[in-house]
Amino acid sequence: MKKLSILIILFAVFSCSEEKKQADSIVFNANIYTVNDAFGKAEAFAIKDGKFIEVGSSERIKSTYNSENIIDANGKTIVPGLIDAHCHFLGLGFNQYAVDLVGTKSFEDVVKRVSTFQNKNQAPYITGRGWDQNDWEEKEFPKKTLLDKLFPNTPIALTRIDGHAILCNQAALDLGKVTVDSKVEGGEVVIENGELTGVLVDNAEGLVWQHWPESTREDAVKALLAAQEICFDLGLTTVDDAGLDQQSIELIDSLQQTGDLKMRVYAMVSYTPENLDYYINKGITKTDRLNVRSFKFYADGALGSRGAMLREPYSDKDNHFGLLVTDLKTFNRSAQKISNSEFQMNTHAIGDSANHAVLRTYNKVLAGKTDRRWRVEHAQVVSPEDFDLYKNVMPSIQPTHATSDMYWAEDRLGSERIKGAYAYKDLLDAYGKVALGTDFPVEQVSPFLTFYAAVARQDLEQYPEGGFQKENGLTREETLKGMTIWAAYSNFEEHEKGSIETGKFADFIILDQDIMTVEQSEIPKIKVEKTFVGGEEQ
Q1: Where exactly are the structural domains of the chain?
Q2: Minimal CA–CA distance to 351: which of 319, 394, 387, 321?
């Protein structure tokens, strides 16, 4: 009887001390928004080989797993790593080495910044980005006269904040032999009083850019690493770069393979006939960090530079409809070709005419095809009857455009058309999901400004009271989904990222405040305490 008692005790001891499983990392005592199908909450998770292996309560995870790396989150909020569904990652990096013109209040301010930059750098060619004439007291396009006087021999090309217009001095125009007689389909050489102003809109930019010195590989590497640092600091773990050439994509891949570039990149291939043929023949490229399966097209220009293609004339410019950047024959032929492949088509469309044309083409070539997830990038001005055409087309939208443009957009569109502009809730209702991004460096990189703009529809001074067309604001849950699982879905990656679930990449961020409950006005001030990609802190 005594021996039997000892055996029972020993059995109980061994049963209670069952060996724990080994994990690379354990995070517990956290306020976790998993963004799973139920939008459930959790307290802890375990990570192994770069993926979540279990998500649950702190008690469950600590009793089941051992690890040499145990993180007590001290009740802080954790959400999936954020995805910017439309940005210009490489462009952001290059911007770090150009004249920063964001926030200039006048053309004189622009010239002052260019002069300061050149006094310091003595560059043989000068580039800059970020001017916006809508922020100036004089809201017309600038002219090159002062740049010609101060920099007669140094080519200068200054890009408008939206990327759809550049201001050049005469030295830069001379590179492309630009004259008052220069004509470009899908672009405009702006002339005033029979003279060049120096402003080139949309496709006309190429007259100068094609003669500009190409950046070196070293320049591009520096740019990518600089952009990565900025993005990791703000909690981005995947970026959708909306327009890359073959050389840039291959550089990104090589830097990811060596471990220098840890950012996950969804690459949209910039459309050229050569790129289209090359990548369709090559097929989809997919690694843990790189996904190349889409083409980026431009239907029209931007509203701020009056290049967006409208169905009726601009309200503030007689008989001006904007610009069709890609001719419809080329666009339709390309769409048909892509529809017969596994690739996605992502098209920039701002104006209601551009949206209408893109939607009609998409719906025609995709008839009978399922789960193609073709995207309209921006979807900024949509005619009331065209929202139904979004049922099979995914909107990829940037909420901060609404709060940046709201001061002047009605001047461009009028009181009726503005009702179909920045209509994010209507787009969500039409498709059932929206992918959210920033379009940086057109807008600021911070995803918390994106979140705030989507929910509050206000600027940082909480203007306008009640929000700009607040009926088209998104809820916090919809917004977080748009920046995580829906963005992943738009990239065909919802099974590997976008939520904190077993089997997915351990991409997550720790925040200093609860983004789902903090006072609305505090959302832009949220800080990222730590960013993890594949379970590794960045």
Answers
A1: 91-209
A2: 321
Could you give the maximum distance between any two Cα atoms of the chain, in Å? 112
Residue with tokens 């969500």: 428
Task: List pLDDT tens digits, range 308-350.
Answer: 999 999 999 999 999 999 999 999 999 999 999 999 999 999 9
- Of 166, 441, 416, 202, residue with least CA distance to 324: 202
Cβ-Cβ contacts under 8 Å for 378 (sequence gap 6 or more): 86, 348, 349, 350, 396, 397, 398, 401, 439
pLDDT for position 14: 44
Domain 91-209, CATH: 3.10.310.70
- HSE of 525, CA atoms in CB hemisphere, 13 A: 8
> Whole-angstrom Cα distance, residue 84 to residue 89?
10
SS3 342: coil
The values of phi and psi at residue 45, to 5°, are -155, 160
Nearest Cα to 470, choosing from 406, 391, 376? 406
Closest CA to 190 of 297, 317, 88: 317
Which residues, in sequence order, are bridge partners of residue 54? 46
Map residue 120 onto helix, strand or coil: helix
- Cα-based distances in Å from 498 to 17, 61, 160, 528: 36, 21, 33, 17
Looking at residue 139, what is its pLDDT? 86
- pTM of the predicted structure, to 2 decimals: 0.91
Nearest 10 degrees: Cα torsion 258, 435, 80, 510: 90
Tokens of 81: 């790593």
